[in-house]
Amino acid sequence: MSAPAAAEAPNWELTLKVTTADQTHALGAALGAELERGDLLVLTGELGAGKTTLTQGLGEGLGVRAGVISPTFVLVRIHPNLPDGSRPGGPDLVHVDAYRLGSASEIDDIDLENTMDSSVTVVEWGRGRVEHLSESRLEVDLHRAVGLEAPGPGAGEPQPGHPETLDFDTDDNDEPRTIVLRGFGPRWSARPALGGAILGGAIEGNR
Known about the structure:
There is one protein chain. With 207 residues, the protein is an alpha/beta fold. The chain has one domain (12-156, 165-206): P-loop containing nucleotide triphosphate hydrolases (Rossmann fold, 3-Layer(aba) Sandwich). The chain has helices at 21-32, 51-62, 104-109, 113-116, and strands spanning 12-18, 40-45, 76-79, 92-97, 119-124, 137-144, 177-184, 203-206. The protein has an 8-stranded mixed beta sheet with strand order 3-4-5-2-6-7-1-8. The longest helix has 12 residues, at 21-32.
């Protein structure tokens, strides 16, 4: 019997500490300004961790139509680029909630391939479901400080046996959070130019 394949290692990892929802939003805006057509972002975080706040910042940085909310009930929301926004002619934002999707095949059923090349695709709860969509991805894990010990990949994922736990991500209070970014594939061979300058030097550690 062959040994299991080793877990894919990221090209780099950046850990940030934020203390307010505004800092989470600002990080998203700074990152959104760096994103390009075809980029895939995978967001993970428990209830109230700030996924929607971060995505609202991404939308601001991308210059798309305002009104980014969690796509929990519709699975996919598309926010078009605005000609009078911060990045006229830039990519649209495709915002996906994969919480109820159990496999990569169910992801394929919603036809993200049709918009991948022309948009930035942000998938909440996408780990283990969307990696096949692109050779590169940026993983963003958001962790609330309460009850948090040494967050790693998979922390905050839906737990088997608790399908009733819904993540509406509406209660983004000002409390400390740890945000971990990991870059995979050739697109993310280098870390994006953000971090301490955006968050007032609040970089906890990086590699």
